[in-house]
Amino acid sequence: MESFFELVSRRQSCRKYLNKAVEKEKIIQCIEAARLAPSACNSQPWHFLIVNNKEMSLKVSECIRDKIMNKFTEECSAFIVVVEENGNITSRTGELVKNQDYRSVDIGISTEHICLQAEELGLGTCILGWFNEKALKKLLKLNKTKRIRLVISIGYPENTEVRKKIRKDISEIYTFIE
Fold this sequence. Notes:
Blueprint: H1 4-10, H2 24-35, E1 46-51, H3 54-64, E2 78-84, H4 89-98, H5 102-120, E3 124-128, H6 133-139, E4 147-155
């Protein structure tokens, strides 16, 4: 069995997908991983809209790509659109009292759970924050008051070779306070 460290070392953003549909069962397994993610006061402030038919995927791609960004999404067979929900009264009160944005943190955690589960299943993902939210909400018939926080492209990667990760040296990202 692969270790967690091996899984996170292998996971990377995928921008080239095979022309192959992702099985519903695999997407549901990714959503189950997100469901199990921790959240402030167990508020679970997320809802996932799954787009997995080619025609609708192309329309979603039109809302995500432009002249310089996300052109690769045209080739993507599925998307998971991450919609922010209000959460519960306890977490919302905590956000006000502590001046913290717990919902965004929680959504980030659940999104990474999706991506790690997808990687384990042999799927590639890319977390996208660049999109036309107004057009995407209209396409998906979302209430204007809802917020789309992220979109995840998901599919079978064209290339499974792990690229060299360019990261800060570990000594640059921590400090022991003794």
